[in-house]
Amino acid sequence: MDRQILSLAVPALGALVAEPLFVLVDSAVVGRLGTDPLAGLSLASTVLLTIVGLCVFLAYATTAAVARRLGAGDAAGALRTGVDGMWLALGLGAVLGVLTWASAERLVTALGATGEVAQHATTYLQWSAPGLPGMLLVLAATGALRGLQDVRTPLGVAVAGAVVNAILNVVLVLGLHRGIAGSGAGTAATQLGMAAVLAAVVARGARSAGADLRPGRAGLWANARAGAPLFVRTLSLRAALLLTTWVATGLGATALAGHQVVNAVWNLSAYALDALAIAAQALVGHALGASDVPLVRSLLRRTLEWGVGAGAVAGVLVGGLAWAYVPLFTDDPAVRQAAVAALVVAAIALPLGGFAWVLDGVLIGAGDGRFLARVGVVTLAVYVPAALAVRAWAPAGGAGLAWLWAAFVGVYLVARCVANGVRARGNAWTVVGASS
After folding, report:
1. Where along the chain do its domains lie?
2. N or C, which end of the chain has less CB nearby within 10 Å?
3. For residues 11-36, average pLDDT
């Protein structure tokens, strides 16, 4: 079982960290331009990751549905489900790209930015918006391949994309002096290229299995319906992250710039640990499709053990080495101090993060989206008073940022752990068959 889990989790790790690596590279390059551009990138990347994150159901719902059909012996149906998910992603991405470009300034202003920070944030959003169709298509195609238990192809594309993104950012921002606009344009171009490659791989597999490549109304509706509860769940998560950024904005430019560094490292850690959740999604979905509940229970226990252990290792690295890697992002001593203090707080909670994210993966693989949607709303409601208290009473700068992250992990993350843990102990989510 360990070999099975790791054979999916290790390659998935590389694919999962691609998006936060893009943000890390952008942060490191843009950070050379000064504190205001880095603070602007913090806001813009939060908006962009929120938009993409809200659409992560394109990957998660597709993974679960494809894995169940594959477990039930319907390979052609599994690929057809993946193709329909990709068409849905392409259409949704085109609409969101136009809306993001048109409303970039209003989105940034709504988060409380003004002056140079707002200008930089708006510029980055408008230049990165054309890449949204590619970003969402990458989600759907990756979800289909994960459901087919092919995690090596997304890994190869993600590694190539990370390299290309780094080169484009350095050339456009530092070489051609295009500023933060060059960073957004480089990321958009990279995402579109990755989408084209992954879509071609899924299409080739669908043709080989005899699955239709044209969009089907029933399939599109099924994908949208399966993804709706996961959209609500992700909406609540992104609302919590946006609320956290809004509070950081109120703590001043130093805290906001430090928050960008902490948020980028946290996202990288979360995506890395989420590799185990991806393995759980694919394996649990496949086992439920094959009606093997004892195997599902064994997978639950073992992936949780891996999640907590990996979270502990990540916590030691993130917190223990913060003093060494934070200077890569900024030359401002105040920003460095704020980021290091908050990173130590975040690092302590990473074992809990591993527990929560693996349970999310298990329940998503089981198709238990409605429960996750309800829990998402409840945990957000629990976190809101704590975040508002930090905004009202915490000091500005590094101390306030540390209090903000203490509230986020101590209230929001703990609430998710408790809710998901109670659900996993029951049997309501272990529905067997080709569909949940």
Report:
1. 2-425
2. N
3. 73
